[in-house]
Structure formats: structure tokens, C-alpha cells
Amino acid sequence: MTNAPEVAGAPNTAPDDVVVITLPADSAYLSVLRTATAGLAARLNFTIDEIEDLRIAVDEACAMLLPQAVSGADITCEFRLEDGSIRVGVSVLTDDGEEPSRDTFAWTVLAALAGEVDSTVDPDRRVTITLRKHGSGTTR
Length: 140
Fold this sequence. Notes:
The chain has 140 residues and is α+β, with helices and mostly antiparallel strands.
């Protein structure tokens, strides 16, 4: 991580503050991601409600991906702290390489909680759900 100059009233984050966590693709480990999500969002001065929404969104993204995970795979969560927002990419190697359906209730909830949501699949069948949430004190 690099150090950004401090600006009065602004969180001290650089454009390329990135945290990557890799864990076994098992729901027993998701509490680690929820805790990391809350800590990083708090660093950006998100409100308690914004932090909780993001925690639930990351949890929901994982819940959408875990059933597709290859046995013994790891789930990777990349947190990118940007100007007053956080971008979270949750990815796992899957058996089928299918993106989550965007016309489900789960996807609608995810979009409502995170603000911006997208998904991609790479040639190796790694599915990634990307979330981006802005803090209430930021401009978009």
C-alpha cells in the first residue's frame, strides 16, 4: 500500500489501497470476510448502516458463488479502497463457469445493498462478482 497525503476530513487512502484475502471456499470462513469488510469500510468513514449493508452484500455474493465452487477451491476477496468508495471482487473457481443470474431476487438484493454490481467469468471458469459501494459523504 502507498501512503496518500492527508486532507482534512478525508480518510487517508491512496488510489491503490488493495487488500486481498484468500480462504477455503467454505461458509465456515465467511466470518473472516465479514469482519474484514467492516474494518475496511470503517476506514473510509462509512456509516454503521453502510458498513452493515456492505457486510451483508459480501456475504450474499459469497453465498451465490459457494455452491458453484470446485471441491477444495479457495475463495478470493479483493478489496480496493478508492476515493470514498470500496470495490470488492469476490471470486472462485467453478465447475460450470456460469455467471449468477441477474434476474433473481438475490441479485436485486445485492444491487440494493452495494449500489453497483457486476459479474464476469474468465477462461478458467473463475466467476467473479464485483460490488462497489460509495459512502454517504462522497460524490459519485
